[in-house]
């Protein structure tokens, strides 16, 4: 079994730590703050969509992440994803082609996505104004991630898998890496 130090208990650090622990590594996670306490990952909510232009590798990752969040919902017994659907708007005249490229990438990957005309947007989403709209890209399975509870659920899962948490800031220490611990010890 190898050991790993993960610096930062945001969504990325915790996901890496969890995956390493699942693969049998002994993991320590260092962060001056408690998970879900500070930083962008600890916000109330984050949009989870798969449309990212022509970058189909990124679309594929986000599509796979939906399944992993649902897995964590089952494990934690709480709702983390709110499947509201996500609309992206292509404006008439100023469209950059981003929405078209996104749609093509999603269709290649088999990710549910629809091209909605302004008339269809008005019919299905009457609260949305359609003036200047060329079309909208609708991802019915995308939605909102409840970011703070999601990060805390990830941290809880890491603990169950045996990860150790240390409160401290990592600093480069010559050829290796060390950290100072401003608090009294593990959280
Ligand atoms: C306003 C805003 C809106 C956003 N909206 C969205 C959105 O809708 N959808 C979306 O997908 N993304 C969105 N993002 C981006 C998303 O929130 C971030 O990409 C993601 O949270 C980054 O996670 P992270 O783990 O890399 O970093 P962070 O969440 O920043 O976590 C880094 C952690 O590392 C710790 N740390 C830093 N330095 C050290 C050190 N030296 N030693 C120990 N610990 C350290 C910090 O304390 C922190 O806990 C948004 C970002 C912002 C700012």
Automatic annotation (TrEMBL):
PANTHER family membership: PEROXISOMAL SARCOSINE OXIDASE
The name this protein goes by in its record: FAD dependent oxidoreductase domain-containing protein
Gene Ontology MF: a single term: sarcosine oxidase activity
Gene3D superfamilies: D-Amino Acid Oxidase, subunit A, domain 2, FAD/NAD(P)-binding domain
Pfam families: DAO (PF01266)
Limits of the FAD dependent oxidoreductase domain: 5-170
Cofactor(s) needed for function: FAD
UniProt keyword list: FAD, Flavoprotein, Oxidoreductase
Keyword rRNA processing set for record: no
Taxonomic superkingdom: Bacteria
């Amino acid at each position: 079994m190898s050991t790993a130090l993960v610096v930062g208990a945001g969504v990325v650090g915790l996901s890496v730590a969890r995956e390493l622990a699942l693969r049998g590594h002994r993991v320590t996670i260092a962060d001056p703050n408690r998970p879900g306490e500070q930083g962008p990952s600890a916000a109330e909510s984050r949009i989870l969509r798969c449309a990212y232009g022509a970058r189909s590798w990124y679309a594929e990752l986000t599509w796979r992440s939906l399944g992993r969040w649902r897995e964590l919902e089952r494990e934690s017994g709480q709702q983390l994803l709110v499947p509201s659907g996500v609309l992206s708007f292509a404006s008439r005249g100023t469209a950059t082609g981003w929405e078209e490229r996104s749609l093509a990438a999603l269709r290649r990957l088999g990710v549910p996505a629809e091209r909605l005309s302004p008339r269809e947007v008005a019919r299905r989403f009457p609260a949305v104004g359609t003036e200047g709209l060329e079309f909208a890209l609708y991802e019915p399975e995308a939605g909102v991630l409840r970011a703070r509870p999601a990060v805390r659920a990830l941290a809880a899962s890491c603990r169950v898998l045996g990860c150790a948490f240390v409160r401290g800031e990592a600093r480069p220490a010559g050829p290796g890496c060390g950290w100072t611990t401003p608090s009294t010890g593990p959280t």
